[in-house]
Design a protein that fits this description.
Layout (H helix, E strand, L loop, with lengths): L3 H4 L1 H25 L4 H9 L1 E6 L8 E2 L5 E2 L1 H13 L2 E6 L5 H6 L5 E7 L8 E3 L4 E2 L2 E6 L14 E5 L3 H10 L6 E5 L2 H9 L5 E5 H9 L11 E6 L6 E7 L3 H16 L2 H10 L5
Helix pairs in contact: 4-9
Length: 279
């Protein structure tokens, strides 16, 4: 047999090139689909995930007199850790410094009523939302038909200078008869609805949940309240953040969060910390 054609430089060069290309393709898939994740490796080694949280924002996170963390975000973090098969630890960090703990690889994730900051997307990645704290329209329970597209000749209250107040003034320029009733704070805005002074109030969801679910009902309260609708242009989604170098951790936190949402655990936590109105 003549082996010369098989031993010539051209076929050898072809097979070498094919091998190099194959290695490149394999490396591409390894890098993109099985990337290194120092945070996830650390979590697996220590069996602990460390969350950075601003513990000055109740009811999401606070410290008791003994320095123990408590709040909605704390219970959520413990539940997420359980779903990951590890335990949770928390570090108290000022809100402005939360993302910095990820960049210097000090903490594994941020869980702190955190709103997405698009300008930091080169440094961090975000999970899906676990809480929407945006503006809602609060009306009387028995009052139907007050929606965002049906505000003509209505009076809406809001805390003066708040996002809700700005929205009412904006809408009043294009809605016939819509009037703004500015109040000192969100509580007074909702009280105006209770007392029949306003048809509805635009307030943040947390204030609405807490006020509607409270136990101390004032004697002058004429009407019960409900959350009629959320305001799409004023949503505030709270998410968790991880380092851009932590794709596995992002995937696993998102998976655990999805489980908690689907099995009703997250809804139960909202009711525990914010009342039935948050369900």
């Amino acid at each position: 047999m003549n082996l010369k054609p098989f031993l010539s430089p051209r076929p050898i060069l072809f097979f070498c090139s094919l091998f190099i290309v194959s290695l490149f393709i394999l490396s591409f898939f390894i890098v993109h689909f099985f990337p290194e994740d120092p945070s996830w490796q650390r979590i697996q080694q220590r069996k602990t995930i460390t969350f950075a949280t601003d513990a000055t924002f109740p009811p999401f996170a606070s410290l008791d007199e003994k320095g123990n963390f408590f709040g909605f975000d704390i219970e959520l973090g413990n539940e997420l850790a359980k779903r990951l098969g590890v335990k949770a630890e928390f570090e108290a960090v000022s809100y402005d410094g939360l993302l910095g703990t990820l960049i210097v690889n000090r903490d594994d994730a941020v869980l702190s009523a955190f709103v997405i900051q698009p300008e930091r997307s080169k440094d961090v990645s975000y999970t899906p939302s676990y809480f929407n704290a945006g503006v809602v329209l609060v009306t009387r329970v028995e009052q139907d038909g007050i929606l965002l597209n049906n505000l003509a000749n209505k009076t809406l209250s809001a805390e003066y200078g708040s996002e809700g107040d700005a929205l009412i003034r904006k809408w009043s320029r294009v809605t016939v008869g819509l009037k703004a009733l500015p109040m000192k704070d969100s509580i007074e805005a909702m009280q105006a609805v209770e007392q029949g002074k306003a048809d509805g109030a635009l307030v943040d969801a947390v204030s609405a949940y807490q006020y509607i679910s409270r136990g101390d009902v004032p004697a002058e309260r004429l009407y019960k309240l409900k959350i009629a609708v959320r305001v799409p242009e004023a949503e505030a989604h709270y998410v968790m953040a991880v380092s851009i170098k932590s794709p596995i951790l992002l995937r696993e936190l998102s998976r655990a969060l999805d489980e908690i949402i689907n099995d009703g655990t997250l809804s139960a936590l909202r009711v525990k910390w914010f009342g039935e109105a948050a369900k």
